[in-house]
Each structure stands twice: as C-alpha cells, then as structure tokens.
Amino acid sequence: MKSTRCLLLILCLGLLPGLLLRAHAQSPVVSLQPAQQQWLDEHRSLRVGLVLQAPYAQFDRRLQQLYGANVEVVTWLGQALRLDLTWRNFPDQAALEQALRMGEIDFAPGLTQTQASLRLWLFSDPYMRVPQLLVGPRSGAVAVELEKLGASERLAVRMLSTLADYLRSNYASLNLQGVPNERTALQWVIGGQAAYAVVDEAQLSRLSREGEFADLAVVGDIGLPQLLRIGSRLDWPQLAEVLEAGLQAMPAKTLEQIHQRWLQPKYPRFAESAGFWQNLALLCALLLLCSLATLAWQRRQQRYLERSLLATREQLNERRSREESLRLSQFSLDQSTIGILWVNWDSHVRYANHAAERMLGYAEGELLERPLIDFEPTLHMDRWLELWKRVRSTAGADEHFESHCRRADGSLLPVDLSLSFLRFRDAEYLVVFLTDVTERRRALAALRESEAQLKGIAGNVPGLVFRLERDPAEGGLEFPYISEGSEALVGYTPAAIQHPQMGLRNLVHADDRADYHRVQDLALAHDLDWSWQGRIVTREGEQRWADIKASSRRLGNGRVVWDGVVWDITQSKRAELELARSQEQLRELSAHLESVREEEKARIAREVHDELGQMLTVLKLEVSMCELAYAELDPGLHERLASMKRLIAQLFQLVRDVATALRPPILDAGIASAIEWQARRFEARTQIPCLVQVPDTLPALSDAKATGLFRVLQEALTNVIRHAQAHTVQIELVHTPGQLRMTVIDDGVGFAPEQARPTSFGLVGMRERVLMLGGSMSLDSEPGEGTSLSVAIALEQEEGE
C-alpha cells in the first residue's frame, strides 16, 4: 500500500510540470514600457529565494523538485517574462534576509510587508490573500461572532504573533490561550481544552489533510488577512516594476486555481448547503465501505509510526517556536532605544543591549562583567544590596530615580534609572533600564527660563496680566496665573484674585457688572476674543477706569484659554469724559447761538418786510401822484417818474428776497410745504427735475426743528448744485412712530465719504446742526453711483407735549 501511495505521489509530481507548462503556454504576454523591457533584456537571469514552508514552498528530495503555491506563481511569472530563474531555498525568514544582504538572491515571493521589512525589500501589490479562520468542532457548527464569545469559551491562538496582538487589542473580552503553533491549537479544540482555534488558511489547508483533524470545521473569519507580496532588491527598482507588471498580467482565474489547489482547506464552511454535504457523506460512506478492508490492516501498522512522527513533529515545532520566540525577544532587546542591563546580586553586568552600550560609550561586549560602580559612582555595594533587597521583596513594584552615569570618555550622562526584579531559569537579576534625559532636562531648563522671562515681563507691565481657563471637569472658570501688578492696580494679591470666590468679576463696579458679564459670557460661550471698558473698585474702595482685553487660544489637548491684560485708563478716561462734556457744552452753546441767530433773522426779515415794505408803498404812492399831477406838463419828467416806479418795483422784489432768505415765510405753513416750495425753487433755478414725496399729515414740529431741517435741505441742495452734476433729485419725508426722517437722493457723480476734505464745512455744518436737534445723519455715496443723505429727528418731545 505504501508503494502504491508513493507511485501516485510521483505520478502527480510528474504531471505537475506539464500542467504548469500548459498553463504558462496560455498565459498572456506581459506588456512593458521600453525602459522596463530594455532592463529586462539585460537581466534575464534572476535568483529566486524561497522559505520552505508548506504549503507555500516545499522540496521533494526524491524528485529534486520544488512545489507549492509560491513556486507556481513565480514559475508563471518566469514563463510570462521569459526569465532564466535560479532557485534557492532557506529554512526561515532570517536566513532569507541574510542572503538578501549578502547579494545572493534578487527577489522572493510570499512575503508580508512590515515596517522593518521595508528597509530590506521593495514590495509589490498583494497577489494573494490568506484569511485567518476560526475553527471549531464540526458537530453543530454555526457562524460564530467573536464579540459574543464569553469568558468561559477559550480561544487557542499562537502567541507572540501579530494575530494574538490584534485579538487582544480589539476583543478585550476574549479568553485567549497561547499555544506554540497551529497544530497544538487544533489539538486543543479536539481535546476540549479550547472551544475554538484561530488558524490561517494556509496552515489549515496543510493540517486538514490529516485524519486527526477530520472532526473540525471552519465557523468564522477573524478579519485580519495575511497579504502575500513579492519582495525585490532595494537597489533594483526596475525589477520591482517588471514583477508588478507581470503580476498585473496574471489572470485572476490562475491565482484562484493556485489558491484552491494549495490553500483551500478541506473543512466545510458553515454557509455551504446541507444537501451538498449529505451527498458528499453518502459518497464517502460508499468509498469507506469499499476501502475498509484495505485500510484496516494499514492503520494498525501506521499508528505507531504516526504517533512517533506526531510526537517528533510536535517537539520540533515546539522547539522551533521557542527558538523563534527567543530570537524575537533577543532582537527586541538589542534594538530597543532604552538601555537595558541585567545585573546580578554582586552588581556585575550579565547582559547589556546595544542601546546601553551606545549611551555609555562602550564597544560591544565591554560592559559585561563590569560592576555598576564603574559607570554609576553612587551605586556602591551597600546601596546596591539595599536596592536589591527592596526591589526583590516588592516584586512587581519598580524602583525609580534619576542619576548621572559616567561614560567611557569620563563625561557624565543624565539618565533616568528604573529597577525591576527578574527571575530567569535558576538565576535572579535586577533589570536596570537607562533612559537618556539630556533633552528633557534641556527642555525643562528652557521652560523655566521662559517662565522666568514671562514673569519678569508681566511684572513690569503697568497693569494686571492674567490667564483664564475653563475647568473641563466642572465647567467653572479659574485663573492659573495673575501677575504681581495686581497689588499696584487694585490692591489685591494674585492669590486673592485667584480664589474661586473672587476673580475679576468681583472687581467690577456694581453698576457696570451686568455689561461685563454680558461681554465675557458671550466670548466664553463661543471661544472668542473679548474687550471691555468700565469701572473697577480697588481694595480701598477707590473707583478706577479699566480696559480689559483677552485673546483666546486653543491648546494641544483641545482646551481653550484666554490670555489678557487689565490696563488702568483712569486718566485717559477722565480726560475723555471731560472732553465729551466740553463738546456737549459747545454743542449746546452752538445750538443756543443758532437759535438766537434764527430768531434774529426772523426779526430782521419781519422788519425788512414790514418797515421797508410800508415805506416803499408810500414812496410808490407819492410817485404815482406826482405822475398824475405833473407828468403831462413835462415829457422828461414823465420818463423819470416811470423809471422811479420801476426802481421801486425792483426794490420791492429785493426786499422780499432778503426777507425770504433770512426766514422763508413758507415755514409757517409747515415743514412739508416748505420742502415742496424749496424743491420748486431748486427746479426753477437749475432746471433739474426734483421729485418730492411727503405724507399728507405730519405732527407739529417746533420752530427750531422745522427751521433746522429746512436749513439742512437747503445745504444739501446747494451741494447738489455745486458738486453732484446730477440729472434728477429725489426728496422723501417719512414719518414713523417717534421719528421723522428726511432723505435726499441724487444720481450724480458721487464721491468716497472717507476721502472727503476735513474742511468740508457743508457736511460738518449739517452734521452739527442735526446733532444739536438731537438727531442723526447718515451719508451713503460711491464714485459714479450718486449720493444719499438721510437725516432722522426724534419726535418724542413733541408727542409728549
């Protein structure tokens, strides 16, 4: 029976190259760019490195031939790219990478991309995905979700692996049981020591061919697949491009066939139909009945051999796993950036990693068997034994302190020392962790210097410098910093202002506190800058004017702080208030003078109209009587009297114009009639159409306000004549509750208000006249867009009357 099985194996292996050649003959031609094709023509002979691991790559010693999934992929690429391949196989990944460093291979398939491997290889895109499967008993197999597994259901997984770290970090509730290899994981499931096992598809495909694991089935997918890539030499980027082009040209069906042939396990998945497996079970039962007699005697002979081989294989796998774990641990220790020393009770170093040797300036191996006092003078034997006893008696608790180590050249290195107890095999050690804190101390010194400079600057600022933060836990406000200038400004120490019951709010005058709260609360709610001016009260009860400004700043942890300063503006504020009072007095005086002037104008206008009018009327009567009595006696006298009558008529008109200019009589008819009359005079004088819109009824205005509004209209129309070059003018009078608004709009050339001359007394006079009336004026103009003048006068006083 053994010879029959060997014959079948030889026949299959003999047919495999033919099948591969047949597949290669049908492979498409790989299209390369000219530069890639030229490089490939110059490098047809390439060396392939393989790690012998079933089912990716195996070597048949009898046939002296390689076979496996990666072998088929590279054979297809070699045929498609017409390469002359030289195969080299290695026992593990470390030997493969050593061969790459020695320049003995050009590329290798079946690699996994990591941060460390990127320093050695140029990787292609993944050509095969090997999922991590969840395997359980076949009986009652259903879909299993990792989130729903309880702590009582053990999960066997190979420890010291990326998969174990992934499960531990993403499924904290899993009860993970570490095993050295995938075979042991499956055996735990069969033996009931674990409910499920996590095995990658490739290893499951290899192990599922053994009868020992026939009662297992796939019940889920972990979701962390292994992506296989082709890695090539770093100094040959053209080779990586050629291999990538070859992989892209490889048919997906070919890759799928390779995956099914080598990596597809024989276990049924939980989602496959029950009828299929029932038919398969019937077929297997028939085959079993046919071969039962043949297999009965074969099993008796193979059991002993299988048990021996299984035990040997388990021992080899366990030993290999331990060696791999030991190499990983050694590599991690050697490549650590923290210095690590294993020190015996006699304070002599038994192990030192590369980082410790670099820190202390010693060559490789020179630190071994040296006492700690050689490079840590404070760790004499008595202190070391005291530390040894303390750390050993509190195993699990570390001893931590800072010190200075003497380097090989005699210089001192500031370090952070941490001691931990370790029992390894039959020996006990204290593990000394060395961390270089040179940069940390420089940063702390720079920080202290910066803080000292800041305090010095803040202390010399003529005011109070503060920093305001919001407590993330309680949401309250706190002042982590108040400058020393607080005592000179308000009489309180920084500590007193920093008290939760004090703060800046309690310094604000009671009458101004509501406005301060409104400004500050708005800024704090939206993380904005804020500024406020008002009165504060010192510790002695003195009132001072203060200007508080604060700018917001977001820290790296997301917290928002406000840095601000409180300036004493008492002197400037008093001067400002005094100036405002002086301006108000000047405005009141100007209003009084304007009122007196308008009254004087009105009196003069009445006197001119009445007195001169009467005199001119009498004179005109006298001339007319002279004309009747003496005109016919002398023709020359008739002409002179007629000329005198014309002069008297002109004088009548001049008197009316003067009286009207001093105070138009139309004002007595109301502001609406006065505006209409002025618009008609403007049209007659300039021939510019003037549209007037006034309401039918208006409240009664005081003479001062009516006169002032009329004078503003006259000045506005005068500016239109002088500067606007307008084609039309629109005057609108609008009455709203408590307010009367007059708007004058022209379509002239316009101007930029900010560029108006400071000596433009027309605008200044209108604005001052409106302010004296207790109103407001706005001017809107742009070059080429015309001008709009709006005047608003309050009516509350008239309505109250």
TrEMBL record:
GO terms for cellular component: membrane. It comes from the Bacteria. InterPro entries: HATPase_C_sf, HATPase_dom, His_kinase_dom, PAC, PAS, PAS-assoc_C, PAS-like_dom_sf, PAS_fold_3. Keywords: Coiled coil, Kinase, Signal, Transferase, Two-component regulatory system. The keyword Transferase applies. One of its GO terms (molecular function) is phosphorelay sensor kinase activity. Pfam families: HATPase_c, HisKA_3, PAS_3, PAS_9, SBP_bac_3. Residues 603-797 form the Histidine kinase domain. Residues 333-373, 450-527 form the PAS domain. PROSITE patterns: HIS_KIN, PAC, PAS. NCBIfam families: sensory_box. This is Histidine kinase. It comes from Pseudomonas cremoricolorata.
